[in-house]
User: Fold this.
Amino acid sequence: MRTMFGRLAGAMLALVVSTGLAAAQSKITIAVGGGACLCYLPTVLAKQLGEYDKAGLAVELVDLKGGSDALKAVLGGSADVVSGYFDHCVNLAAKKQELQSFVVYDRYPGLVLVVSPKHTGEINSVKDLAGKKVGVSAPGSSTDFFLKFLLKKNGLDPMNTAVIGVGLGATAVAAMEQGQIDAAVMLDPAVTVLQGNHKDLKILSDTRTQHDTLEVFGGEYPGGALYSTTAWVNKHEKEVQGLTNAIMATLNWIHSHSAEEIMAKMPDEIVGKDKAQYLAALKNTIPMYSQTGKMDPKGAEAVLAVFSTGSPEVAKAGIDVTKTYTNKYVDQVKTTGMSK
Assistant:
């Protein structure tokens, strides 16, 4: 993975203007909440397709274990932008930290609550997770939020379930297959890999499709997006527009090419050795990718409702969810001529 993603150390927030005959480029560091996860594929693919360069940006992708770690990188000043789940923007608003997403690339969250193959016989429902060990990508990440929401929805106290960070890729699959945890909230391609290895894999909740997402949340629920602090977005409108142009061009490319063509563009270290499993997972995931890049206001409200249900802090905060996202830059893509 290191060959694809730069290291966090030494990442610069200052804008760098290239010298010589090369066109001026702004340097942007994007912290990704798990680069191998298909939910973040548009961010990685945009680099593979050269879309960031076309937008006048020198983008460095930094791969981290989960969305919470990517968020910490931006709040700590070692990265500019997060490629992660929008729900962090809502959650942090309750703590008076202003974050704003500006382009959404996942229509659904794609989160799946899966039972470990070693514990299939003893866990048949979410209620059976009381007192169990459940894996998430990282504590405080969207996988963790989802778990707590499901536990609360099923009448359980989230504090009675042990949450363990296991990452999103091979480490999560290994933890599940070895029975180190009883269940886990996972994302593709890891879910499809487990399904390929264990035909009787038990899934307790699935948000990879519109039907399942509506069933779980009662409405649309946006997943991955590019976001940053509101202050950074306001100070770097040119860069934000460039990033939005790049992601929109990539989404258009995804929806006009086959899964095989998309996989061919992805780095070998992300695809892995089992290309058939990766391809199967990718085919399952493509419908999840947005075609508009826009935040659905109802989806944002659904995120707020979910967090208000599970967190008294969020419920009491009086959050204006419209401030946690903007569609302004997506609306301007066509006028910039970058949507073709």
Observations:
- The longest strand covers residues 26-32.
